[in-house]
TrEMBL record:
InterPro entries: Flavin_OxRdtase_Frp, Nitroreductase, Nitroreductase-like. The keyword Iron does not apply. Residues 10-163 form the Nitroreductase domain. PANTHER family: OXYGEN-INSENSITIVE NADPH NITROREDUCTASE. SUPFAM superfamilies: FMN-dependent nitroreductase-like. GO terms for molecular function: oxidoreductase activity. It comes from Neptunomonas antarctica. Keywords: Flavoprotein, FMN, NADP, Oxidoreductase. This is Nitroreductase. Belongs to the flavin oxidoreductase frp family.
């Protein structure tokens, strides 16, 4: 295809990093690349917090389920959906912002995801590896307090960045025919295609773990989605001024 598409298709989560530092100049370049992502109605609703304090790194690793690479990675960033600066923008014009709308939550969160993916791609283009850390939402209120987040700001996820010290296989994705539909959602072949995909993922895990793990994609998903999924999130988000209407 071309080098850009090759880079996108070679994405892997990296959880082991060398001790080689990442310069602040590179970090600035990555975040600047994130700022160039598409943003809904030009709201620019993502704020990035670079965590250098070792104590805070340790606490964030604990909040994320004791994921040690949060502590060990040369760079750890927290991506926050941020509507606080928009409130300030309204105040600069003696206006009161109407907040709490679900649409504002949606657009701010999407802005964060688009921003972060630009950062990830830029990092990988420089030979760096990344892994997203959604686990910080396990104890999201504690993370917010630790980072002094005001109302209308919430941490969406973290990201570890560094030079890779491992080379895992690329994890196979769902068949394109399951994801790309034409004119209608209905596709009677989905179940058959997903069953075939289950065999591919089962073999992927078997190969990756030396036979210690054999699990299909549908088994993994059904195991995850038959349990509560961070039920504290709604009340937390409402306490921050989101999802009120």
């Amino acid at each position: 295809m071309n080098p850009t598409i090759d880079l996108l298709n070679s994405h892997r989560s990296i959880r082991a990093f060398t001790e080689q530092p990442v310069s602040q100049e590179i970090i600035n370049t990555l975040v600047s690349s994130g700022q160039s992502a598409a943003t809904s109605s030009f709201i620019q609703a993502c704020t990035v917090i670079q965590i250098e304090d070792k104590s805070k790194r340790s606490k964030l690793a604990e909040c994320a389920g004791n994921q040690k690479y949060v502590e060990q990675a040369p760079v750890f960033l927290v991506f926050c959906a941020d509507m606080q600066r928009h409130k300030l923008a309204c105040e600069m014009h003696d206006e009161e912002m109407m907040s709490g709308f679900t649409e504002q939550f949606t657009t701010a969160t999407l802005d964060c995801g688009l921003f972060a993916q630009n950062v990830a791609i830029a990092a990988e283009s420089l030979g760096l590896g990344v892994v997203y850390i959604g686990g910080i939402r396990n104890k999201i209120a504690d993370v917010s307090d630790l980072l002094d987040l005001p109302d209308l700001v919430y941490p969406v996820f973290g990201m570890c960045i560094g030079y890779p010290d491992q080379a895992p296989e690329v994890k196979p994705r769902l068949p394109l025919a399951v994801v790309l539909k034409k004119d209608s959602y209905i596709n009677v072949q989905d179940s058959t295609l997903m069953a075939d995909y289950d065999n591919i993922i089962r073999e992927y895990y078997r190969s990756r773990t030396g036979g210690n793990k054999e699990m299909s994609w549908s088994e993994q998903i059904s195991g995850m989605l038959t349990k509560e999924a961070r039920p504290h999130m709604l009340s937390y988000l409402q306490s921050r001024g989101y999802l009120l209407k």
